Amino acid sequence: MPRLEGDSREAIKEAALELFASGGYGQTSLREVAESLGISKAALYYHFRSKDELLTELLQPMVDDQQRLIEEVQAGTLAEPRAVLERYFDLCLVHRRLLRGVVNDLQVMTRLDLIPKLIAWRIQLDEVLVGTEPRDQVRAIVAFGGLQDCAVLFPEDFSMESVRSEVVDAALRALTPPGAAGS
């Protein structure tokens, strides 16, 4: 059985992320992850006790990035709506394979208590950016949801950089109240 070069945990995480993104989390087995690396399932279990543990570790960088974004917006170091939208879009792009792998698997998202966490994080971001007025939050939901959908729904090989400004412009239009300057 071949040995993994370098950091085995990172190699396993990268292989799992690739398989989750292409086939979905629920449809990918740890056996498939192990086989893609040419290692035994036991070797994989040495590093990760379960598929959920592996997913949780894959999710942590995205959770950390989301927390940093909220902290910067709350602190006012990232205050311009366009800059916030750009940062959010970039965050979605960095984690697009992971988002693809779990977005269609509501069972795992529910089991790992991800849905309430993601919703709470987005509501917090919406409120920090636009307040708690429902009509303002509608615009924020459309803006951030549109950014996330663009990052996830375009094919993996599509250069999002080629449409980044259009995506952010559209989100900014959605976020801007009717009749406001620039709308």
Describe the model.
This is TetR/AcrR family transcriptional regulator. Keywords: DNA-binding, Transcription, Transcription regulation. Residues 6-66 form the HTH tetR-type domain. The protein is mostly helical and 183 residues long. 73% of the residues lie in helices and 0% in strands. It has two domains: 8-47, Arc Repressor Mutant, subunit A (Orthogonal Bundle); 55-175, Tetracycline Repressor, domain 2, CATH 1.10.357. It has helices at residues 8-23, 30-37, 41-47, 51-75, 81-94, 96-103, 106-111, 114-130, 134-153, 164-175. Helix 4 runs parallel beside helix 8 and helix 9 (134-153) packs antiparallel against helix 10 (164-175). The radius of gyration is 19 Å and the shape is elongated. The model has no long low-confidence stretch (mean pLDDT 89).
* Biggest sheet layout: none
CATH class of the largest domain: Mainly Alpha
Structural class: mainly alpha
Query: Helix count, per DSSP?
Result: 10
* β-strand number: 0
How many independent structural domains? Answer: 2
InterPro entries: DNA-bd_HTH_TetR-type_CS, Homeodomain-like_sf, HTH-type_TetR-like_transc_reg, HTH_TetR
Organism: Microlunatus ginsengisoli
Protein name: TetR/AcrR family transcriptional regulator
Keywords: DNA-binding, Transcription, Transcription regulation
